[in-house]
Amino acid sequence: MRIRRPAAPLTALALTVALTGCGAQVATDDDSAEAASGHYPVTIENCGVPTTYDKAPQRVVTNDVGIADIMFALGLEDHMAGYVMPEYRGKIEKVAWKDAYDTVPWLSKKAITKEIALDAKADLVFAGWHYGFGEESGVTPASLKKLGIGSYVLTESCRNGTSGSSRGVMPPLEALYTDLENLGKIFHVEDRAAALVKKYRKQVTAAAAKAPAQADRPSVFLYDGGQDKPMTSGTYAGPHDIITKAGGDHAMKDLKDSWTTVGWETVVERDPDVILINDYGTPTAEQKKKFLTSYAPLANVSAIKNNRIYVLDYADLVESPRNPAAVTNLAAYLRNVHGG
């Protein structure tokens, strides 16, 4: 696979060579079939950067659970060299692609490194800013490019340029649909991508149709973790759309970022009706709940007084094909809150 900026038309010689992290390889019969199909080269825009693919990547390495989910939901496990993610993968027994997790190699339970990508002979790393990519780790699209490895950046994590490394360029669910459609083009599985997007839009629309009027919506605060300062989500992270489509009023909707921290005084001031816990295993959701219900400054917050604390998995809340089901599940809970 060769990833490049749009340039001059492909020559016949260029079609016979695929650049990977290990050097040049002669094209296979499958490569020739792809070229003959007329689909390639294909150009997509990812975080504002147009990139052209001469063929479908064959050895993709993903970082984090939601990103692996996207590949698996599209049926692209045969194009993967492996995935990197912590021990906690959410409730994979409930997803349609659970077998893929046992089929594709689990390369590491720590963050991705350049060494992992090289050892896997990756031709593409699918990760995101703060989802594997970061200057502090030295793993960035630019550093991987120097190694001959391409990158695809999770759209939810696109940097928006408003303040340092703040993230988010579109509504979170639109980011999911954008990545499905882009990957559909890159891997020439547009029909699969279109079917998923149609299914997810229908599922979200059905849940949103049952939501109460805006004035009657319970306010919801997303609690990711942290005791000195809570980590939460702004308008560009998955929980924003999950909460609002489910019929809630996102307490931190004015934060023009994805995942970020706020002060407890802000939580107290906004007095959420519901606290939504992000469960990623350690500390456990029960431990987080115990902290919230015993933390004195929160004692008079409506969600604490009325014991309105709901839990969703990390994989439900980051950009993932699990987002639409999360909307449905949270919507049912919020309808009970409203009814009460």
From TrEMBL:
Signal recorded as keyword? yes
Q: Has the keyword Signal been applied to this entry?
A: yes
**Per UniProt, which keywords does this protein have?**
Signal
Which is a Pfam family this sequence falls into? Peripla_BP_2
Q: Where is the Fe/B12 periplasmic-binding domain?
A: 59-340
Q: Matching Gene3D superfamilies, A to Z?
A: Nitrogenase molybdenum iron protein domain (3.40.50.1980)
* Signal peptide boundaries: 1-26
Q: Which family does it belong to?
A: Belongs to the bacterial solute-binding protein 8 family.
Q: What is this protein called?
A: ABC transporter substrate-binding protein
Q: Which organism is it from?
A: Streptomyces halobius
